[in-house]
Amino acid sequence: MKKKTHIKGIILFYIIAVLFRYLAVKTTLLNFTDNGYLIILLRGCGPAIGAWVAVKAFRIPVRFSLKGNYNNILLPFVIFWILPVVLIGTVSSIQESKFPVLLLFTVLVYGLLEEIGWRGFLQEQLKHLPKFQAISIITVLWFVWHLNFEGTITNLIFFGILFFGTWGIGKVYSSTCSLLAVAGLHSLNNFFRHGLHRTELILIAVLLAIWISFIIWYNRNYKTIAANRGISDNKFTSAEKH
Q: Average pLDDT, whole number, for the chain?
């Protein structure tokens, strides 16, 4: 049976996501606060709010999960949140004599708010489409959501980054179903406010290597355990029948 596409739900989700983004970055609405952490979160909350409203309004069967396929929430939280905070925070404390733990967790929550919309909702709604088509749609919508339409080389590069990011983060989400995992991956670039230099690129490479290795290792072991458990259950059932 072909999966139904909730076109109205997607439209409502996107209107709300763009509206909140516009209010946050193109108006003076956020002038009421000087709290930089709160401003960061308000700039990224649109996709999460849009997804939640669309799901409720049209009763769309979407399962938002922080832990995903993992046995408990602690494992993805440690690997995809605590690890980058400790690693990047330690390097930052060495270079700048401060450990920006609040900023790092704020960036992770920002990534989570976006990923609830882009992966948890939109990717799920488009997953029955051909992969390239789904990736292209998400990329275009994600790019437009940023409301930066300057015809520059930087923007063209940014579009390409979003395309490969949609592909890569999408693969992680398909593999883990964990919003914590994709939020960590999403936040890699946002961790570094002063640009990507040698140290930052090394940190990104290290984290990606650890995360990808962990996902592959866990999936292989999880499937093996699940398969063995299935065999044991079948043997137990057969023994009962006899």
A: 90
The tokens of 20 are what?
Answer: 């909140």
Determine the residue type at 75: L
Q: Which amino acid is at 27?
A: T
d(CA 91, CA 99): 9
**H-run or E-run covering 169:** helix 153-176
Specify the pTM: 0.89
Contact yes or no for 110/190 (Cβ under 8 A): yes
Per-residue pLDDT tens for 78-104?
999 999 999 999 999 998 888 999 999
Q: Dihedral through CA 30, CA 34, CA 35, CA 39, nearest 10?
A: 20
* DSSP category for residue 30: G
Is the per-residue pLDDT at 152 higher than 60? yes
**Residue-wise DSSP of 182-230:** HHHHHTTTTT-TT---HHHHHHHHHHHHHHHHHHHHHHHHHHHHHHHHH
Angle 145-179-105 (CA atoms, 0-180°, nearest 5)?
80
46-71 residue pLDDT tens: 999 999 999 999 999 988 999 999 99
